[in-house]
Amino acid sequence: MIHPTADAGFGVYLHWPFCASKCPYCDFNSHVRHTRVDEERFVAAFAREIAHNAALTGPREVTSIFFGGGTPSLMRPATVGAILDAVARHWSIAPDAEISLEANPTSVEAERFRGYRAAGVNRVSLGVQALNDADLRRLGRMHTAAEALAAVRIAADTFERYSFDLIYARPHQTPAAWAAELKEAIGHAVEHLSLYQLTIEPGTWFERLVAAGKLSVPDSETGRALYDVTQEVCARHGLPGYEISNHARPGAECRHNLLYWRYGEYAGIGPGAHGRLVTAGGRLATVTVRGPEDWLSAVERDGHGIESSEILSPEAQGDEFLLMGLRLVEGIDPGRFAALAGRPLDAGRVDALIAEGLLARDAAGRLRATEAGFPVLDALVADLSS
Amino acid sequence: MTTKPIENIRNFSIVAHIDHGKSTLADRLIQKTGALSEREMQEQVLDSMDIERERGITIKAQTVRLEYPAKDGKTYILNLMDTPGHVDFAYEVSRSLAACEGSLLVVDASQGVEAQTLANVYQALDANHEIVPVLNKIDLPAAEPERVKEQIEEVIGLDASDAVLISAKTGLGIEDVLEAIVTRLPPPKGDAEAPLKAMLVDSWYDAYLGVVVLVRIVDGVLKKGMTIRMMGTGAAYPVDRVGVFRPKMTNVDSLGPGEVGFLTASIKEVADTAVGDTITDDRRPCAEPLPGFKPVQPVVFCGIFPVDAADFEDLRAAMGKLRLNDASFTYEMETSAALGFGFRCGFLGLLHLEIIQERLEREFNLDLISTAPSVVYRLRMTDGTERELHNPADMPDVVKIAEIAEPWIRATILTPDEYLGSILKLCQDRRGEQVDLNYVGKRAMVVYDLPLNEVVFDFYDRLKSVSKGYASFDYQLTEYRPGDLVKMSILVNGEPVDALSMLVHRTRAEARGRAMCEKLKDLIPQHLFQIPIQAAIGSKIIARETIRALRKDVTAKCYGGDVTRKRKLLEKQKEGKKRMRQFGKVEIPQEAFIAALKIDS
């Protein structure tokens, strides 16, 4: 178990906004381009935006870097290397920094793994999503289960650490079928798994299908059963949950993501990226322009693509701290909430939630959601933050 | 023009069911006599409120003076008193009718006599009116004037052989109507030399003129500058202005016997003018006042609350303004744990309630919640005292109550034969007692005695739905009868919700309770814990539903880029919680109250 600290480090998130195709469930900032993406131009823009952020933060030691997307594994290894060089030029990178990259598990992309390793990436996260071909097709994935598992093996041979994602609560999925698939997955995962319940997001193709009655997803009762199976199977196989959707061998948690949940400091670089920077004026929330080409021209014109930057109020910081921190099994330090929000948690609400068995307080005074509390965390946070 | 020869005056009103063409006929009469130019004509001139025009109903009495050169060579003054057509406004109808000597009974030649027609025509007969039947819409292919004439003779007992056949829409027969008014309706009677005796027919507030009083002169002469006295209230006022409606307000020097017109006299509030009062000359008063009207009593009550508590003062001001023009609407402040500060309001009936609500929302731009309408119960206490109960929440301890009496109505329903079975069942289900059932052509006419309590609870909507909209309905209050009435409370997670309590008949309590619990089950969002919803009489639970605890709502993915969006959602959620009402641990959205209190489901 890693030690929860208030000073969770400094992370850099880099967003590569392109995908070979759009998955029907995805509402991320991803774009399909049919002409060649000018990676050199993007590298230059990333470098400029990094410089701009470094000017805002001052010197920092970077403890984690995360290439997310989109599909960062569409980048040439040289591009990844050049961006990492830019990070190193403007801040310093800790010798043991975790450098993750999201990758699609196709054979084409697996061929680039060695190059990413050489560029400095030491952890990959693979979007496997399912271990049967029928579901993969329905999810709009461009790979088969066999191809994905082959990519997982290459990742295991190439990187110190790797993880992969699965999506559950797929149409017609039963808890028994999911348990079997999950056990198979754990056989291929050494230290880390991200397991997401399928969510129908606004604006996605799946939303339209659901609205048209052409797609049905498990109801909340089945969703709960699938969630419970997930926790139970993973815990039994040595990958206990450390966050709502993330499971790891103790010590193998994703350090970059922990930074978000511990409400640490991070810079968001690239189109549609979000940052939380600790500046002299307070905690600064930054958001960059979403459209890749718009972001590019903004950076080339202004030196950065930040379209909104806002010093967060104590109330907003308290909300964000609760939203993120209570997702972790380690829970939160109520003292830090009080420091951020400028007020303590409502003792009456805390006690009521403890009495309901949804929240627990440990000997050190930390508050965490219980097994019963996690599945209804959104309502719990809404109650606690009021 | 001091006085017109009284034999050249005709005062008349039009009695009709909604949609049978009363307002259109009035428009035609105005047009034909040249009171308004083509350019000034707009549809339904007399219905000046938007709500009146939209719903095709008349709420306030209106009047217009027409000059008609008749075929006998003389020019007549015709005063049309337009009356509301709905039972809720029966009081306004009765005083308008009292100001006239005759009525036109307008019946749609394709529809025939309706329940409302009956109620109003009986009132006109009660006022000793001469009645001229007019069959409208004879241009329609479905018109059956002969059958409708028979119906009028059979149901109302009026000779319809000389009925005037018209189409108000095309203008056909309008001249015949004017001639019938002149030749078949009697002129008013009155003595110009006698002391002033005039009836206060109606009054309203005009932004420019102050209170305008509509009067019908019986004896004597009303002149500008004289001092009048209200015989009922005793107040005296110098008259600023005397005039007539053509239909625009036009000043005249005086009004003589038989004439209808208006006066203004620096009267501050409509409440200072008692409708039905007798107006006389302060210096030379008449000996006897006219027989008055009984004061109106609100029949249906409900609580009206602002959705946003900050609108309370605006609501109070709006109610004050409406009351200026509508003395039959009453309100007093009320507080509710569920709905906050608001008003307990009294109305003449359900339509009146709906109209006031709509005017408050529309003319004053307020968002309102109304509680379920309830009637006025009379409680006889064990100590022998009596009291009225306007709000179920104020129900005293049952051990102190000897007897509860509720108002009953006599309802007349006219319906095509095929819906009769369902309508009889509806009336039976609502504790109705059949008084009469007979056929008028292909239509059945049923008369039922019903508790008003059962009628305010979605009766109209059920009647409309079982008869596909073909049944017509009218009622009048008859009497109070003791009943086995109990107060039903609704408990959410064991906490009583005051705004949802109601008085019901014991035999109906379980069904009502179950319906309310089922509705609330769908309206109250899931909480982190299970919530029982119960209906109870005293401590006895008669219906129960359970809202299961929330099972899963956690967001699957939440990383650095999601937190802003999630925070904004949370802020919205917190904002929403502010609009919720807390009952113990349960938060009930205001929308849930609005939906639960809707009477139409």
CATH fold name of the largest domain in chain B: Rossmann fold
Distance between the termini of chain A: 31 Å
Looking at the overall shape, the CATH architecture of the largest domain in chain A is Alpha-Beta Barrel
Strand sequence of the main sheet of chain B, in spatial order?
Answer: 11-10-16-7-8-15-12-13
Question: Class by helix and strand content of chain B?
Answer: alpha+beta
Stretches of chain A where pLDDT is under 50 for at least 5 consecutive residues are 1-6
Percent of sequence in beta strands of chain A: 15-25%
N-to-C span of chain B: 59 Å
Would you identify the regions of chain B where 5 or more consecutive residues have pLDDT less than 50?
Answer: none
CATH-level-2 architecture of the largest domain in chain B: 3-Layer(aba) Sandwich
Percentage of residues assigned to helices of chain B: 25-40%
Strand tally of chain A is 14
Oligomeric state: heterodimer
Question: Tell me, what is the CATH class of the largest domain in chain A?
Answer: Alpha Beta
Q: What's the mean pLDDT score of chain B?
A: 86
